[in-house]
Write a structure and sequence with these properties.
The chain is mainly alpha-helical. The chain has three domains: about 110 residues, no CATH class; about 220 residues, no CATH class; about 60 residues. The chain has 20 helices and no strands. The radius of gyration is 31 Å and the shape is elongated.
Length: about 450
């Protein structure tokens, strides 16, 4: 079965046809040829997602299409092109399906190990060039889309260390992030009238919101890259790379003119200073390097002195610009920089993940009750694995579990309902259908046996 390309027009009739086709593909035991469909869907929805990030003009599509497409992509046995994977990460990285996106990237890495080379030789250099592009025609909207693309790809790759490592080891990529964070966004702020507009909330103008969201995406990207670098297997080479990168970041100079007023976090400080203000960079370095050498590296003291001078006069918990724009950011659906050592998975995300997995199973077996499926997903025996549950449901091995769930649900749901007693069950069994009790319209008619003819009639 070959899936057609994703339609470029969002007519309801076409979307219903797409959904129906995807359901047949998921239900089929044969492998679907989905390469063209996945590529066109990812390109179309990634463009719509990036447009929505800036202009809030996204056109909604049925949630079933979003779920089924990701499920089909996970099942594909062919390598997915790197540009399509980037598009898929843009579509799903900030959705409730982030866990399924991680599974997709893990499956692609297992299926196609040269994916690392594609990221190293294609993705990292391309994104570095986009970050470092100083073209005046690249306005704030373009920078916002670039930052969103980068944070989406990094979130998709983050649990898979070999895929995130090329970003961590690219000094040019990290410096390009820092350059856009400081010099690039400073120049853009000046073109909009300076920092004064950022310090006042103005709902009629969206540029302060877009500007701060760009900064948040860049510092979150820096956090993922640096965390992967610290959490790897630090050796002498990695140690020198870390110091070389950090001192190169300190050498970047803020391009705006100095003033007598103190600096404000997340407004006019360089990337490494804001990151240290939010995550306390120096707490991570000694523990990492102590594993390599028992002696404290004197360069750590030099880093500490340089960072302290950048943050002089700033309170430790000062939210800086984030406090000023928090209200407008929240209205726009943005999220402030999270504090260090916080879990990425909230209760809402867990619920959303259960809902998405339930929807995947119901798309294949729509006759099941959602509560039945959700309870199976919560069962520790299956670990929330959709494929294991589907396999058990299709081969009948989970039939008894569903019956038990059904009985418990009937006992506990509804008002005024009472648990069925053994007598009630016997009473119900007494009304079982008996074939011998069938009746028809001739049952009460008197039959004249003399008029009954047996055999053929002889006609003379």
């Amino acid at each position: 079965m070959q899936l057609p390309p994703y339609p470029t027009t969002q007519k309801p009739g076409l979307l219903i046809a797409v959904q129906s086709t995807l359901q047949r593909c998921v239900s089929s035991t044969a492998q679907c040829d989905s390469e063209t469909y996945i590529a066109t869907y990812a390109a179309h929805r990634a463009y719509a997602t990036l447009q929505n990030v800036v202009w809030r003009t996204d056109t909604r599509i049925p949630e079933e299409i979003t779920q089924l497409t990701l499920l089909i992509a996970q099942r594909t046995t062919r390598p997915i092109a790197i540009h399509t994977l980037i598009d898929l990460s843009i579509v799903y990285a900030h959705s409730p399906y982030l866990g399924q996106l991680h599974l997709l990237f893990q499956a692609q890495y297992s299926l196609y190990p040269p994916l690392i080379e594609s990221i190293t030789n294609d993705a990292v250099p391309t994104l570095t060039r986009l970050l470092a592009n100083s073209d005046a025609h690249q306005a704030l909207a373009s920078k916002r889309k670039i930052s969103e693309s980068i944070i989406s790809l990094l979130r998709a790759c983050s649990p898979i260390y070999p895929l995130i490592r090329p970003f961590s080891l690219s000094k040019d990529f990290i410096l390009a992030l820092a350059s856009l964070y400081d010099a690039g966004l400073t120049s853009i702020a000046k073109s909009y009238g300076g920092y004064c507009s950022l310090l006042t909330t103005n709902d009629a103008d969206d540029w302060p919101h877009i500007w701060i969201q760009t900064k948040i995406a860049l510092i979150d990207s820096f956090h993922i890259v640096l965390t992967a670098l610290f959490n790897g297997q630090p050796g002498e080479i990695e140690k020198e790379h870390i110091f070389d990168t950090l001192f190169a970041l300190l050498d970047l100079r803020v391009t705006h003119a100095p003033s007598d007023t103190p600096s404000t976090p997340f407004l006019d400080l360089p990337l490494i200073a804001d990151y240290h203000h939010a995550y306390n960079l120096l707490e991570k370095l000694p523990s990492i390097f102590n594993e390599i050498s028992s002696e404290r590296d004197p360069r750590i003291d030099l880093l500490e002195s340089s960072l302290s001078s950048l943050l002089s006069g700033i309170e430790k918990k000062n939210p800086g610009l984030l406090k000023t724009v928090l209200q407008s950011t929240a209205k726009s659906g943005g999220n402030p920089i999270p504090p260090p050592n916080t879990s990425d998975i909230s209760s809402k995300e867990i619920t959303a993940s259960l809902d998405s997995k339930t929807a995947q199973i119901l798309a294949i077996l729509p006759h099941l009750s959602p509560s039945h499926v959700t309870q199976l997903l919560r069962d520790d025996r299956f670990g929330g694995n959709v494929e294991r549950i589907l396999e058990g449901l299709l081969d009948g091995s989970l039939g008894s579990e569903l019956d038990d769930v059904d009985e418990e649900e009937e006992e506990g749901s509804g008002k005024g309902k009472q648990k069925a007693t053994p007598k009630d069950r016997e009473k119900d069994d007494s009304f079982a259908y008996d074939v011998s009790q069938r009746r028809n319209i001739f049952d009460n008619e008197e039959l004249d046996v003399a008029r009954v003819r047996v055999g053929k009639q002889n006609i003379e």
